[in-house]
């Protein structure tokens, strides 16, 4: 469902669903990747450009730091 919100450029709705998914499956590396893309591709109104990119970077790093990345 979150991906559908991303496709429709609805940042807050997508973010809420991704965070809920992360809460339910904290070890799912794909959620971190999707959150990174969300912050990288969409521009939430409440964040500066630097904050947005830093948040995306943090989620990308979290994704890459996981041991089972092939």
- Identify the overall geometry: globular
Helix content: over 70%
Instruction: Please tell me the overall pLDDT.
Output: 92
H/E series, N to C?
HHHH
User: End-to-end span in angstroms?
Assistant: 26 Å
Structural category: mainly alpha
What's the total helix number?
4
* DSSP strand tally: 0
As residue ranges, the low-confidence spans are none
Main beta-sheet annotation: none
Strand content: under 5%
> What is the radius of gyration?
12 Å
What can you tell me about this protein's structure?
There is one protein chain. The protein is an all-alpha fold and 70 residues long. Helices cover 71% and strands 0% of the residues. The chain has four helices and no strands. It has helices at residues 2-7, 11-24, 29-41, 49-65. The protein is globular, with a radius of gyration of 12 Å. The model has no long low-confidence stretch (mean pLDDT 92).
In short:
This protein is an all-alpha fold.
List descriptors.
70 residues, globular, mainly alpha, single chain
């Amino acid at each position: 469902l979150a991906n559908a919100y991303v496709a429709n450029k609805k940042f807050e709705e997508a973010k809420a669903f991704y965070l809920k998914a992360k809460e339910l499956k904290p070890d799912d590396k794909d959620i971190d990747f999707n959150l990174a893309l969300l912050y990288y591709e969409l521009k939430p109104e409440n964040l500066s450009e630097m904050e947005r990119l830093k948040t995306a970077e943090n989620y990308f790093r979290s994704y890459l730091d996981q041991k089972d990345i092939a």
